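Lab notebook page, bench 4
Experiment: in silico fold of construct C2
Operator: M.H.
Input chain length: 209 residues
Purpose: comparison with the prior construct
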Amino acid sequence: MAATPRPTWASAPDRRPNCVLEPFKAYLSARFTETRGQVSGTRLFQEIHERGYRGSRQVVCKHLAALRAGTAEPVRADIPSPRKITSWIMRPRQTLTESQDKRLLEVRLACLDIARACDLARTFADLVRHRRGYLLLEWIRQAEQDAPKSMRGFAGFLRQDFDAVTAGLTLPWSSGVVEGHVNRVKALKRAMYGRASFELLRTRILTHP
């Protein structure tokens, strides 16, 4: 007699029980180490069930047996991406959720370079938001002294054009309008595939809204 085929509507967690257990493996490993292996699968099942686990007790017992035998797969580290870490650093701290603030603190404790870069980046963002150009020189000195290499390079570029950067962080004026017109001219030129004469381009610029 042919075996009964598995229903196609079976959920992914039913097909892959380890996926259900994955978020709780770090907790199970910590409890296993804490109790030196002297803990039952039923007890661990009850503990993680209270924390949201919806799998079977057999899966927990199987993982516990693998821990005792030393054959359990290592817990995959949940390492945030550089893009995510950067977004946490550049946003004002009061806008971070409690979870995001905690994760950033973990990253800072794990890497001193990131911790220093975070402090300097937040200070520089404050200079930009509040136009505190008079503090720029002090920021550059601090960055050149003990910042990570890439940030020291950034500070060096700021020093080369110090007067212009200070003005940008102090004065209310902006070159944004000029840049907007430049982009508009480039768009018109591209629309004519670069083949139009200067007179036609000039006419379109002057008549274009």
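Observations: The CA atoms of residues 107 and 114 lie 7 Å apart. The mean pLDDT is 83.
Next step: discuss at group meeting.
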